[in-house]
């Protein structure tokens, strides 16, 4: 059983590395690819290999998706808000530090996620009916907290609601996108948190990148990684929530302007913890929290400890890869920012078209216009998370909007 486990883990880690490093490609994409050839893989390698590969791909993706978001400022659904402090460090010549902080946050999350998974499996299944009923109210409270304690509650409320309307529109008419479904998240979040930021980015040249990186104090590291892991674990178990919601909550308690390093650790921890708790939810209550878990749900699953071990092994491989790639920031040193930003924006536009067609371009344009507003009125960009939170809140409260 060890040989299939290692083979599946290494194959999944390779796929997760590709999905993590290519902007706009998610681990769910790799899950669909593996699932499309599952009869061949199961017949030749066996179900345990395929299951381990799926888990390893998801975990590896959560480590490596920080690289394009830091170096290029192109977010995906799991790194949208993290782009702001990470890309800011990159422009200060500290991209290597940002990526290393993200890797450490994800590694800490693996340590926290193991006891959290056991605790959730023991305590939460019996409480699941009450949890399902109250999720909409919980998110509504979080949204109100984000608005009330922002720099300008009126502007934050307006941005939150307008971005929420755009999110409702995008998901309601997602069938107009070529690939439908969650593919609209790519142009939606890239416009709000990627293109909008790049359009207002400084010109000049990318500063020389330092290779020296220091970690936060142990006390701060423990606090931020635990907070991020807890947030990621909660949204990993609760129905209808994504890691974007966890990042929005973290932004309300960890100031990503004043405490950038801690925020990067926390959001990366949330991203990785979400993957492990999603696996626990699949085994404990049969809920499928993402595309990878949905793919696993179609298989005859091996034991939970086996897949948990695959996730831990993948995390070790991914941690090493992330640290290795953190040193490549120097490639961008002294590169003209105007040209780099234009190349990235063009890439996002092309990818939006390839994934979603004309509908994706419309969503990207509308999201970019909304994403420009926070900088103009000097409020935190986390208000734009209404694009994800409003649809989830309304659907959780039983309002038929999607």
Automatic annotation (TrEMBL):
Matches recorded under InterPro entries: DUF112_TM
Transcription regulation is among the record's keywords: no
Boundaries of every DUF112 domain copy: 9-385
Transmembrane segments: 37-59, 101-124, 130-148, 155-178, 184-201, 262-285, 306-332, 344-370, 382-401
tRNA processing recorded as keyword: no
Top-level taxonomic group: Archaea
This protein's UniProt keywords: Membrane, Transmembrane, Transmembrane helix
Name listed for the protein in its UniProt record: DUF112 domain-containing protein
Originating organism: Methanofollis fontis
């Amino acid at each position: 059983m060890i040989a299939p486990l290692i083979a599946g883990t290494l194959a999944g880690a390779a796929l997760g590395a590709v999905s993590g490093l290519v902007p706009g490609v998610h681990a769910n994409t790799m899950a669909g690819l593996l699932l499309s050839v599952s009869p061949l893989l199961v017949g030749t390698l066996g179900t345990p290999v395929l299951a381990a590969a799926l888990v390893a791909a998801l975990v590896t993706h959560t480590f490596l998706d920080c690289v394009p978001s830091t170096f290029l400022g192109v977010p995906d659904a799991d790194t949208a808000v993290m782009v702001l402090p990470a890309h800011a460090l990159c422009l200060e010549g500290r991209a290597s530090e940002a990526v290393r902080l993200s890797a450490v946050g994800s590694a800490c999350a693996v340590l926290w996620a193991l006891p959290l998974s056991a605790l959730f499996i023991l305590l939460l299944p019996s409480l699941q009916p009450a949890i399902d009923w109250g999720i909409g109210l919980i998110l509504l409270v979080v949204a109100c907290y984000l608005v009330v304690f922002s720099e300008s509650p009126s502007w934050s409320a307006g941005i939150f609601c307008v971005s929420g309307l755009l999110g409702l529109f995008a998901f309601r008419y997602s069938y107009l996108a070529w690939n439908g479904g969650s593919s609209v998240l790519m142009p939606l979040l890239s416009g709000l948190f990627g293109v909008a930021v790049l359009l207002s980015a400084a010109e000049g040249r990318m500063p020389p990148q330092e290779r020296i990186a220091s970690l936060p104090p142990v006390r701060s590291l423990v606090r931020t990684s635990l907070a991020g892991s807890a947030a990621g674990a909660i949204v990993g178990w609760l129905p209808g929530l994504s890691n974007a919601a966890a990042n929005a909550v973290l932004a309300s308690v960890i100031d990503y302007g004043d405490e950038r390093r801690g925020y990067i650790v926390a959001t990366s921890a949330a991203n990785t913890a979400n993957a492990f708790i999603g696996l626990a939810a699949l085994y404990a209550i049969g809920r499928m929290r993402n595309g990878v878990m949905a793919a696993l749900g179609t298989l005859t699953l091996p034991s939970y400890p086996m897949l948990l071990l695959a996730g831990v092994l993948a995390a070790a491989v991914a941690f090493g890869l992330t640290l290795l790639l953190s040193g490549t920031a120097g490639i961008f040193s002294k590169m003209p920012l105007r040209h780099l930003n234009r190349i990235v924006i063009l890439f996002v536009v092309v990818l939006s078209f390839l994934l979603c067609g004309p509908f994706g371009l419309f969503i990207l344009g509308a999201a970019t216009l909304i994403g420009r507003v926070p900088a103009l009125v000097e409020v935190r960009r986390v208000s734009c998370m209404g694009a994800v939170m409003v649809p989830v809140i309304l659907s959780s409260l039983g309002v038929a909007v999607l």
